[in-house]
TrEMBL record:
This is NAD(P)-dependent oxidoreductase. Belongs to the HIBADH-related family. It holds the Pfam family NAD_binding_2. The keyword ATP-binding does not apply. PROSITE patterns: 3_HYDROXYISOBUT_DH. It comes from Nocardia vinacea. Residues 5-160 form the 6-phosphogluconate dehydrogenase NADP-binding domain. Coiled coil: none annotated. The keyword Protease does not apply. Keywords: NAD, Oxidoreductase.
Length: 295
């Protein structure tokens, strides 16, 4: 877009996403609670706003990449007079994870205030974010989605149109259902191989040359072998996602036995102090269960 674009939220995912936009020449106006996160963007020509109000005053399309619903409400000033002053005439694009019902409610309030809304949660972690290889899962009315699609291209290798607001987040939950259970299974397999004295590089070769090979195995198996828990996707976020999925499943009357077991493991991992480390640290909860069984 030739017009300036707002970007709010420069955390582990938001910063590399915004950097990819800036590198393509997008005129960005950014804001983050910790201004130091904006420094790499300023070097690429982005402007740092002093407040959320300034972002809305200087841009028409505002991307929001925030950690959860509570922070999103707080930053947007939802349920305050500030919200009604900021939103009219704007398109708000929410790229974080939230409950589908929350997103529908936010969309309704933005429309009532004279704005438009698109949900565009992304599938992928920090490494794909840095490479511009995320997948956006879009929910919203067709005209508004079409208007923001070009803006997503520098951040995402693919954009999947899922339907009205709520559909994009439901699709994200379905994808994360597979991811969280898959990764817990992969961690358990590495633990099994370790305890049986198998050569772990050979285990990695067996997976990566077989039918289960994928980007997840290529990235996560080395981290599991090396116990490298540097964060790409945090365990606490994985656990929160399992709870969102479970809530949506219960609302639809769907049983989730594998998800429920995986959620317990991620919760135990968080309780052991690994919440802000990578979700592969779930192997520690699995190892702890082994030790308990040996007692």
């Amino acid at each position: 877009m030739r017009e300036p674009v707002g970007f709010i939220g420069l955390g582990g995912m938001g910063q590399p996403m915004a950097l990819n936009l800036a590198r393509t020449g997008t005129d960005l106006v950014v804001w983050n609670r910790s201004p130091a996160r904006a420094e790499p963007l300023l070097a690429l020509g982005a402007k740092l706003a002093s407040s959320v109000d300034e972002v809305f005053a200087r841009t028409r399309v505002v991307i929001v990449m925030l950690v959860n619903e509570e922070v999103t409400d707080d930053v947007l000033g939802r349920a305050t007079s500030a919200f009604a002053e900021r939103v009219p005439g704007h398109i708000v694009v929410s790229m974080g994870s939230a409950a589908p019902g929350y997103s529908r409610g936010l969309a309704a309030e933005i429309r009532a205030a004279g704005g438009r809304y698109v949900e565009a949660p992304v599938s992928g972690s920090r490494k794909p974010a840095e490479a511009g290889e995320l997948v956006a899962l879009l929910g919203g009315d067709r005209d508004t989605v079409a208007e923001v699609l070009p803006l997503l291209k520098p951040m995402c290798r693919e954009a999947v149109l899922c339907g009205p607001v709520g559909s994009g987040l439901l699709m994200k939950l379905a994808v994360n259902h597979y991811l969280t259970t898959m990764l817990a299974g992969l961690a358990e397999a590495v633990h099994f191989a370790t305890r049986n004295g198998l050569d772990l590089p050979s285990f990695q070769t067996a997976i990566e040359t077989g039918p289960m090979a994928c980007d997840v195995t290529r990235v996560k198996i080395p981290k599991l072998i090396d116990r490298d828990f540097s964060v790409q996707a945090a365990t606490s976020d994985a656990y929160a996602n399992t709870r969102l999925i479970a809530d949506a499943a219960r609302a639809a009357g769907v049983a989730t036995p594998l998800l429920d077991l995986s959620s317990d493991l991620y919760g135990e991992t968080v309780d052991r102090g690994y919440g802000r480390l990578d979700m592969v640290s779930v192997i520690e909860a699995i190892a702890a269960r082994t030790k308990k069984a040996e007692l």
